[in-house]
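New to this. Look over this protein:
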Amino acid sequence: MTILNTATILIVLAALFSYLNFRFLKFPSTIGLLVAGLLSSCCMLAIDALVPSLTLAQNLRETIGQINFTAFLMQGLLGFLLFAGALHVNLGDLLKNKWPILTLSSIGVLISTAVIGFGTALLFSFLAIDIPLAYCFVFGALISPTDPVAVLGIMKSLHVPRRLETKVSGESLLNDGFGVVAFAILLAIAGGGHHGEHVDAMTIVRVFLVEVVGGIGIGLAGGLVVYHAIKGVNEHNLEIMLSVALVLGISCTAFAVHASAPLACVVAGLMIGNHGRLYAMSDATRDAVDLFWSFTDYILNAVLFLLLGLEVLAIPFNRSAGLTIAAVIPLVLAARFICVAIPIGLMKTKRTFMPGTIKVLTWGGLRGGISVALALSLPEFEGRSAVLNATYGVVIFSIIVQGLTIGRLIRSVSAQSEAAP
């Protein structure tokens, strides 16, 4: 299979399933494609069980195996998806809610990582699954951040109160950057870092500064350069090309210096989507840029969530997978509740929050492709398959069950808020 053949198959399937979902299932696009991918995988496994000579599942598994999902998402799609999402986030609203968002995306991730780390250690011990304690915390780090791609994809189809949408979207855009940093540090401590290097306090501080501060700085610098470039021209095709070059340029720069490419793309997207949109673009250019990035966001999301559904064929499920997933899902939800309730409870003394904020942020904390990509990047260790099973199970539950019911919860909370005196 060539790259062109693989890309053709994914895009054709994504287009077909998107059409069928639009006409019949009427799920949110991302959920519909994930369900379609899962059903396709299950159907092929069933056909292979009935007619083994066809080897359909094996052929698809080999095709999926040729795609490095971690590199495909983390070094390819993610930068474009984050930039497209950040383009439409109001910076003024974000700054008004900066403390809740920053607290949830940093301290909240650390609290969740600790709770899930200790919790999974106890669960795995109870289930007689041998796994080093350090890797329980690695699992906590990779499953704690909410996925901006999944969250923004669902939020677009819901009528969410503006203040609440800003908190949910803002947190999801930022916390994957903090989560990836925590994952990298904990993985190095667990023995999976580059060359097994020793990790001390100074190394952790250095990695944090390079990743977070470096990522923000690269995004800010790249955004400023492109802002001044588009301010001096009025040609929408050129300005669109400059925005694409911006995403590629800052991503490659961030990878080269080991800074956070996701944070760089978010910062650049916020700058171009706010300052650039107001002061450097004509009305025609704004419309063209919005149309281009809306289509880019749609097609990349379609391919990503379809592939996420098909990845079930690449995950080595073991005999205890069902029990592991069933035990871990409540733990992850409980950790999400704790990491939301503690910061918001402390901030309630100085800030007012919409009633039901904790409920919505807890249930709306969707996990997605980033968690799966990080899990698949783990080196071999005792208990790796259990971590992969738990990660995939949490992600599927999160996107399908939480994603399909969060709208009802938001409508209920909004109705209660409007009815309150």
Summary: DSSP finds 18 helices and no strands in the chain. The first helix runs from residue 3 to 25. Residues 3-64 form one domain. The two ends are 63 Å apart (CA to CA).
